[in-house]
UniProtKB/TrEMBL annotation:
EC identifiers of the protein: 3.6.1.27
Swiss-Prot/TrEMBL keywords: Antibiotic resistance, Cell membrane, Cell shape, Cell wall biogenesis/degradation, Hydrolase, Membrane, Peptidoglycan synthesis, Transmembrane, Transmembrane helix
Biological processes per GO annotation: cell wall organization; peptidoglycan biosynthetic process; regulation of cell shape; response to antibiotic
Name of protein: Undecaprenyl-diphosphatase
Misc remark: Bacitracin is thought to be involved in the inhibition of peptidoglycan synthesis by sequestering undecaprenyl diphosphate, thereby reducing the pool of lipid carrier available.
Organism field: Gemmobacter aquatilis
Gene name as annotated: uppP
GO molecular-function terms, A-Z: undecaprenyl-diphosphatase activity
InterPro entries for this protein: UppP
Transmembrane segments: 49-70, 82-101, 113-132, 184-202, 214-234, 246-266
Protein location: Cell membrane
UniProt catalytic activity: di-trans,octa-cis-undecaprenyl diphosphate + H2O = di-trans,octa-cis-undecaprenyl phosphate + phosphate + H(+)
A cellular component annotation (GO) from this entry: plasma membrane
Top EC class of this enzyme: hydrolase
């Protein structure tokens, strides 16, 4: 039984890394996969904490750029403004996440059919938005104005409903607000760092009393595999969306959501 649990943790870790930065909802995928695998984590902490592996993947890929931004912020107004923009976009998630944490974890995370429905609806939105001919006003992530960044931050909060997708909501929101497809994905990458690190720290602290050695082993396995698979995705995603857009991810969501809803309706 322990081996089965560790194998499930490994599968979910890979799934987390592969889906965190594409607009398909990593949380929705691992919650549904966990349901069908019979995987249960204390306080649903595993599903949140392994996201730190994906955060570190972004940090490793963007380490040089992050260093350039922070080391030049004192003399480069554009670098400073971008740092402030990401920080500003992060604020709504802090406030709403803290206030709604218990409801999200005890109600929304425990409703598989809701997750499946949100996957489908989010997929429809993604396909629709990808077909819109929107002329970008801000091609690069560093060009996003502070007001637009704050709006993206509020839109990101929709992803607190599992199945919506953090990257999906921020990318769609950014594109509708005039950010180019590549710039929208990159802004989503940068915003993911404080958002996911904050969720990791807060959730770990909230559930510190229910975690045991077995839980930490599962988290460690999921964390490591999430890191490895996320590095591969981050390195290839920007080039892909620049050439092909986001429609394929929308169709993927619709298919996965439909199959999951059908299985759930049949009692699986």
């Amino acid at each position: 039984m322990a081996d089965q649990s560790l194998l499930s943790a490994a599968v979910l870790g890979v799934l987390e890394g592969l889906t965190e930065f594409i607009p398909v909802s990593s949380t929705g995928h691992i919650l549904l996969a966990g349901h069908f695998l019979g995987f249960e984590s204390a306080g649903k902490t595993f599903e949140v904490v392994i996201q730190l592996g994906a955060v570190l993947a972004v940090l490793s890929v963007y380490a040089a750029r992050l260093w350039a931004l922070f080391s030049t912020a004192h003399r480069d107004p554009k670098a400073l403004r971008f740092i402030v923009a990401v920080a500003l976009a992060f604020v709504p998630a802090v406030v709403i996440g803290v206030l709604a944490h218990d409801f999200i974890k005890t109600v929304l995370f425990e409703t598989p059919k809701l997750i499946a429905v949100m996957l489908i609806l989010g997929g429809i939105v993604l396909v629709f938005v990808d077909r819109l001919k929107i002329e970008p006003r801000y091609e690069d992530a560093t060009d996003v104005p502070l007001g637009v960044a704050l709006k993206i931050g509020f839109i990101q909060c929709l992803a607190m409903i599992p199945g919506v997708s953090r990257s999906g909501s921020t990318i769609v929101g950014a594109v509708l607000l005039g950010v180019g497809k590549r710039g929208a994905a990159e802004f989503s990458f940068f915003l993911s760092m404080p958002t996911m690190a904050g969720a990791f720290a807060y959730d770990l602290w909230k559930n510190r009393d229910v975690l045991d050695a077995g839980a930490f082993t599962e988290i460690g396995i999921g964390f490591a595999l999430a890191f490895i698979s996320a590095v591969l995705v981050v390195k290839g995603l920007l080039g892909y969306v620049s050439r092909h857009g986001y429609a394929v991810f929308g169709w993927w969501r619709i298919i996965v959501g439909t199959v999951a809803f059908a299985l759930l309706s049949l009692g699986f």
